[in-house]
Design goal:
Layout: E1 4-9, H1 15-25, E2 28-34, H2 38-47, E3 52-54, H3 57-64, E4 70-73, H4 80-89, E5 94-97, H5 104-117, E6 121-124, H6 131-142, E7 148-156, H7 175-178, H8 180-191, E8 193-202, E9 213-221, E10 227-235, E11 250-255, E12 258-263, E13 267-272, E14 275-280, H9 294-312, H10 321-340, E15 344-345
Parallel strand pairs: 1-2, 1-4, 2-3, 4-5, 5-6, 7-10
Antiparallel strand pairs: 7-11, 8-9, 8-15, 9-10, 11-12, 12-13, 13-14
Helix pairs in contact: 1-9, 4-5, 5-10, 8-10
The chain binds (2S)-2,3-dihydroxy-3-methylbutanoic acid.
Length: about 350
């Protein structure tokens, strides 16, 4: 099957990993790059041998009609909605970086406009594609610990995330949109859909606009019908940790016949009456990845491969717009819960 041609919209921090990840996967070639500052598009275009550059997204869609098979939007969250609406207008299949949008209503409108236009719409939500999280899900599905009844998903870090992503400090809603989008999607990936949610948030950093600490407790129902109480603990509070493990996620699952733990350095510990079995589920290492983001950058390639399969018609995408909308609903339900100190109940 021939290469698919695509346009990259947004040539900032994440494009330095998103584009090499596409080249790693193979089967898709960037032929156009957009940045509202043309020189920034040119810089990335030269780095990755991309032939055409644009500063106006509508000019890109008009000029590239018939020449691109999809667009990959890697821009700031407030631009996602207008760009996805443009893709729907010009009937170009679209991948958009998480978080889908700044609020639930615009996210729902993005899914609707693409559905009504018959345009495939996917979200680049890569956390569920991390090697150790895929391995943990496989162990759960094998049934070694029996039906899960409680789980904890922790991403607590003192990593100076604002150093190379300074825009995060300007978000009025920060950790639930940035990190919660990932972790709540992992909770859905592992334990199904939520029936209720309660959240508390805090701002510890004095020099940022949004919250940097969140605790989310959900009642979830997994594919087998098991009810699982899931607590997600998120923090970029900047506190020094004795052993910083950014950006690793630690997960502990209790089941009817044992427990399953994803710990530091991608170690999975499966404990049953027979004892504890240990295995390591480390991500692949790519030359283009930043070692400080190892497990995250490796997951970009896996997510791209899944979405490319859907674009080529050879496989099903996991993170469609429709699916990711369920994660977006959890993110904004968490804000509702925290803002009103209420439990949010979801219709079955
Ligand atoms: O990977 C990301 O989406 C980043 C992170 C969660 C690491 O801060 O925004």
């Amino acid at each position: 099957m021939p290469n698919l041609n695509f346009a990259v919209i947004g040539t900032g921090f994440w494009s330095l990993y998103q584009i090499p990840a596409w080249l790693e996967v193979g089967g898709a070639r960037p032929v156009a790059a957009h940045n509202r500052t043309l020189s920034k598009a040119r810089k990335i275009a030269q780095q990755y041998d991309i032939p055409r550059v644009y500063a106006d997204p509508e000019v890109l869609f008009r000029s590239e009609a018939g020449r691109i098979d999809f667009v990959d939007i890697i821009t700031a969250v407030e631009t996602h909605a207008p760009l996805v609406h443009l893709a729907a207008k010009y009937k170009v299949p679209v991948i958009c970086q998480k978080p889908m949008s700044t609020d639930l209503a615009s996210a729902e409108a993005m899914v609707a406009v693409c559905r009504d236009a018959g345009v495939p719409f996917y979200i680049h939500e890569n956390w569920r594609w991390q090697t150790p999280i895929r391995a943990l899900k496989a162990v759960l599905e094998q049934g070694a610990i029996g039906a899960p009844f409680r789980a904890r998903i922790d991403m607590i870090s003192g990593f100076p995330v604002f150093a190379n992503q300074p825009f995060l400090a300007e978000l009025e809603q920060f950790i639930l949109t940035d990190l919660g989008s990932h972790i709540l999607d992992v909770a859905r990936f592992l334990f199904g859909e939520a029936t209720s949610l309660y959240c508390q948030i805090k701002r510890v950093h004095k020099d940022i606009k949004g919250e940097d600490v969140a605790t989310v407790m959900m009642q979830m129902v997994d594919a087998s019908g098991a009810e699982v109480t899931v607590t997600c603990n998120l923090a970029y509070a900047g506190n020094p940790l004795e052993r910083e493990a950014f950006p690793q996620t630690f997960i502990f699952v209790e089941g009817e016949r044992g427990s399953l733990e994803l710990g530091r350095d991608y170690l999975l510990r499966i404990t049953t009456a027979d004892g504890t079995h240990l295995r390591r589920a480390a991500p692949p290492r790519y030359a283009w990845a930043d070692p400080a983001y190892e497990v995250v950058h490796a997951s970009i390639a896996s997510c791209n491969a899944n979405l490319l399969g859907a674009l080529k018609g050879t496989g099903a995408a996991e993170t469609t717009g429709e699916d990711n909308l369920k994660t977006v609903r959890l993110v904004f339900a968490a804000y509702d819960s925290a803002n009103h100190d209420q439990v949010i109940h979801f219709q079955e």
